[in-house]
Design brief:
By secondary structure, the chain is of the alpha/beta class. Strands 3-2-1-4-5 form a five-stranded parallel beta sheet. α4 links the parallel β2 and β3. α1 packs parallel to α4. The longest helix has 18 residues. It is globular and about 40 Å long.
C-alpha cells in the first residue's frame, strides 16, 4: 500500500483525531503564536491533511494554499473550507518531495506533522527559506 493510499483511507478518522485531541489544540495555538499570521499574508500549509491548521489560518490571512499527498484529504479540506465560507483556501494534491514553490511567493509556510528529518537521499522536504519570510514547522 502506498503512502497516498494509507492517507486516503485515514481521512475520516484523522480529522476526528486532530480535532478532538487536546494536544493538537495546543500545537495549533503554538503554530499560530509562533508564525504570527497577518491579514496580508499569502500562506502555504505543507501536508495540510483535512485542514486543521489551514482552517485556523484562513480567517487571519489573505490566502492559504493547502498541499497534501492525499486526494481524499484535499477533497475533505476543500469541502470543509467551502462549508465554512473560507473562499481564500485552495488545495493541491502532490507529493511534498515534488512540490515546487517559486521564490518569495509566500509570506508564511506552515507544516504540522508532515515534514520530518530526511532519512537520506530523497528524504522528504528540505525547506528553502527563499520560499517565504516565515516558516513554522511542527514535526513528530
Amino acid at each position: 500500500m502506498t503512502v497516498t493510499q494509507k492517507w486516503d483511507k485515514r481521512v475520516g478518522q484523522w480529522h476526528e483525531h486532530v480535532t478532538s485531541a487536546a494536544a493538537f489544540g495546543k500545537v495549533l495555538d503554538r503554530i499560530l503564536d509562533l508564525s504570527r499570521p497577518r491579514p496580508s499574508d499569502v500562506c502555504v500549509d505543507l501536508g495540510a491533511g483535512t485542514g486543521f491548521v489551514t482552517a485556523a489560518l484562513a480567517p487571519l490571512v489573505a490566502s492559504v494554499h493547502a498541499v497534501d499527498i492525499s486526494a481524499a484529504m484535499a477533497e475533505a479540506l476543500a469541502g470543509r473550507a467551502a462549508e465554512a465560507g473560507l473562499a481564500n483556501v485552495s488545495t493541491e494534491v502532490i507529493d511534498l518531495r515534488d512540490f515546487r514553490l517559486p521564490p518569495s511567493s509566500a509570506d508564511l509556510i506552515v507544516s504540522s506533522y508532515a515534514l520530518h528529518p530526511p532519512s537520506g537521499p530523497g528524504g522528504l522536504v528540505q525547506p528553502d527559506l527563499g520560499w517565504s519570510q516565515r516558516l513554522s514547522l511542527v514535526t513528530a
